[in-house]
Amino acid sequence: MLAMLGSIGTTMIILACALPTYNLWWPIFVVLFYILCPIPTLIAKRSQNADDGVRAPNAMFATIGIILSSFALPIVLARAGVIQWGAGILTVAGNVVAYTTILAYFFGFESNDSAMW
After folding, report:
1. Rounded to whole angstroms, what are the CA distances from 111 to 14, 45, 61, 106?
2. How far apart are alpha carbons 41 and 3 in whole angstroms?
3. DSSP H or E segment with residue 31
4. Nearest-angstrom CA–CA distance, 69 and 80
5. Is 89 exposed, middle or buried (0-12, 13-18, 19+ CB in 10 A)?
6. Is the terminal CB of the chain with fewer CB neighbours within 10 Å at N or C?
7. pTM of the predicted model, to two decimals?
8. Per-residue pLDDT tens digits for 81-112
9. Which helix (H) or strand (E) holds 106?
10. Which residues cross the membrane (predicted)?
11. What are the C-alpha distances in Å from 97 to residues 3, 35, 43, 45, 83?
């Protein structure tokens, strides 16, 4: 199920770039946000220091900032006229599917010792 959701999200991002009416590859840069998204959470979960009460909110703040940036990028690009609004909407829809997949992974497989949240 996760692989199918990931494939659908990736397909929507690629369609936002490759369809002949859009034909610009700027929306593909949101993939960088997908790679960066879990890194603060993984770093905070792996640390076993006494200051975990400080690291968890900082990791959550960084993760939310990365997620909001990935939603803001296609909107800003469409608003500036760099890409068309259809490509921006496809990219935002791909973001929703991709982040749903990442969230399902963390709740499904990484929740064995998640006292951090």
Report:
1. 31, 11, 19, 6
2. 21
3. helix 30-36
4. 16
5. middle
6. N
7. 0.82
8. 999 999 999 999 999 999 999 888 878 876 55
9. helix 85-109
10. 26-44, 56-77, 83-107
11. 11, 15, 24, 24, 21
Phi then psi dihedrals of residue 69, to 5 deg = -65, -35
Q: Which residues contact 28 (CB under 8 A, 6 or more apart)?
A: 13, 14, 17
Whose CA is closest to 73, among 116, 30, 9? 30
pLDDT under 50: residue ranges of the chain: 116-117
Q: How far apart are CA 47 and CA 112, in angstroms?
A: 16
Amino acid at 58: N
CB atoms inside a 10 Å sphere around CB 6? 18
Which pair of structure tokens corresponds to residue 22? 């859009």
CA dist 89 and 36 (Å) reads: 22
Query: Which CA distances in Å does 39 have to 42, 67, 102?
Result: 5, 12, 12
| SS3 call for 63 | helix
